[in-house]
Amino acid sequence: xxxxxxxxxxxxxxxxxxxxxxxxxxxxxxxxxxxxxxxxxxxxxxxxxxxxxxxxxxxxxxxxxxxxxxxxxxxxxxxxxxxxxxxxxxxxxxxxxxxxxxxxxxxxxxxxxxxxxxxxxxxxxxxxxxxxxxxxxxxxxxxxxxxxxxxxxxxxxxxxxxxxxxxxxxxxxxxxxxxxxxxxxxxxxxxxxxxxxxxxxxxxxxxxxxxxxxxxxxxxxxxx
Length: 224
Known about the structure:
Helicase, Ruva Protein, domain 3, globular, DNA polymerase, domain 1, DNA damage, five-stranded mixed β-barrel, ATP-binding, alpha+beta, four-way junction helicase activity
């Protein structure tokens, strides 16, 4: 099983990228969001990967973070959600958006992805709502970085193209993970804690850990 690739980009297509790892080329399928964030041709890149193996098919799917890879695996476990649908959801919402949508039960956000109908979106939310806290707790850890030791020097590498800068993990991601842990220590259940944190993070995207905790506690406080 191939779990991560580090190499240089040979070319970028509309739905995949070819990564040269010491002379061996790997075709890796990615979401639109991930492709837009990759560097140009000839530049170093690293992606976490998940392999799909069938009798007549073998494909690699690439993700910039472990959180996104984990969401892909979970989305694929839902009936009616294949690799293409999973990448569509992640490409539309991003891993942080998927966490928030599922924690809040917002199936309309999931339905916004291309090719995802209302029944499938509701199934995604219902089947994964109890797993959202675990993925959220991963925070912003596990960002794939290329290592110089696995990338051969290229004498005449193609001139890098003007590519969009690679998106960095949102600062709010680690704050959400820390707030989730804190609420768990206070005795709140994973589901209700994740829902409150997701709502608070949606209202205050740049909030730090303490701000998220206070906002979540207000949401969890008994209503008169």
